[in-house]
Amino acid sequence: MTEPRKPRRTSIGSQRNPESEEAILSAAAAILREGGLGAFSIEAVARRAKAGKPTIYRWWPSKAALLLDVYHRQKEVSPPVYTGNVRGDLMRFMTELLSYWKRGGGAVFRSVIAEAQGDPAAAAALAGYAAERRIHTGAMIREAQAAGQVRPDADPELIGEMLSSFAWSRLLTNRLDMSEPEIAAYVDSLFDGIRPG
Amino acid sequence: MTEPRKPRRTSIGSQRNPESEEAILSAAAAILREGGLGAFSIEAVARRAKAGKPTIYRWWPSKAALLLDVYHRQKEVSPPVYTGNVRGDLMRFMTELLSYWKRGGGAVFRSVIAEAQGDPAAAAALAGYAAERRIHTGAMIREAQAAGQVRPDADPELIGEMLSSFAWSRLLTNRLDMSEPEIAAYVDSLFDGIRPG
Q: Which of A169, A191, A195 is nearest residue B161 as measured by Cβ atoms?
């Protein structure tokens, strides 16, 4: 399940045209699906979507920004939603994310992280995406906090960052194989901390 | 300060010759210092160290493995050592690591992470290095645990991984600027967990 509302990752001056936007994103997704990352370029997307390259660049300032938008739309991971049991919610979120990445969904994301290390435009796209995800996960932690399931002095965005950074490092070192008890041990560590009781 | 003993990251069949090893590592460091990453290649290192490429490849199976060895030797970060106050030790470790990376020391490491996303040899080198660092940080946590400063059911290597993954994600998203209170808030989160008291 993907999120019903995909917030925009780029602040743009011009209004997007929903139909063109959809055509561009569909073309981008199709190119990725059929040819993989090697086939992906703004040029190829423009050709397939019958859109002008300037139009694409007006809405997505870099190839990485467009890749991240396609990646996020395709991400078969339930959004981190608080359902009344924050430990279970975090378990489910982490389990689904690692499993989606392991099934192949992580390839685009890790390529963007790699590209961001040498390319300022990709770095900006990644920074924006990561900030948005921290806010999103943070909002879920904040809800749990309001319900008394998270200590009142915890920083929700920092907790979100701890979760995502752990997942990233698993992706980047090919260690996505985590059993349920391993994920539970991780969530327990995050929950209980390390201070002796 | 760097660690007095640098454990080897590669399991090799042949015995290393300490003098040649030193010559190769010094040449590699000089090339990085003078020409940056763009100038770094096994070929260039071999030429400068007056060593054969097969010798280098026998001891370091990839360019990334050699880069990581040089990076680790140059890393001006005190090793994570337990001094009797684990919270202070973790604060110091994180502060020094982010500060070293920010001063420019992170460039090599992030380039290896990037390269590892597309190149199996670099991925193997990174995986080996990350595993070694987890064990090293884990040993420090284990010491603190033996002294009663860390809860007995915490997994030391998992805690080490939480620390390093957080630092990695800061490096990879150009967010190395953390104030002392921000680092303290992070270490507190790790310490106290998120479960309400």
A: A169
B195 in A contact zone (CB under 8 Å) = yes
Nearest C-alpha neighbor of A1 from the set A74, A110, A84, A67: A74
Cβ neighbourhood burial of B105 (10 Å; 0-12, 13-18, 19+): middle
Any B CB within 8 A of A179 CB: no
Q: Is residue A71 within 8 Å of A108, Cβ to Cβ? A: yes
First to last CA, chain A: 39
Whether residue A186 lies within 8 A of chain B, CB to CB, comes out as yes
pLDDT tens readout for residues A84-126:
999 999 999 999 999 999 999 999 999 999 999 999 999 999 9
Q: Nearest residue of B to residue A115 by CA position?
A: B114
Q: What is the ipTM of this complex?
A: 0.89
Residue A197 distance to chain B (closest CA, Å): 7
CA distance B20 to B28: 12
Q: Rounded to an integer, what distance in angstroms lies between the CA atom of residue B159 and that of residue B142?
A: 10
The whole-model pTM stands at: 0.89
pLDDT digits (tens, 9 = 90+) for A109-168: 999 999 999 999 999 999 999 999 999 999 999 999 999 999 999 999 999 999 999 999
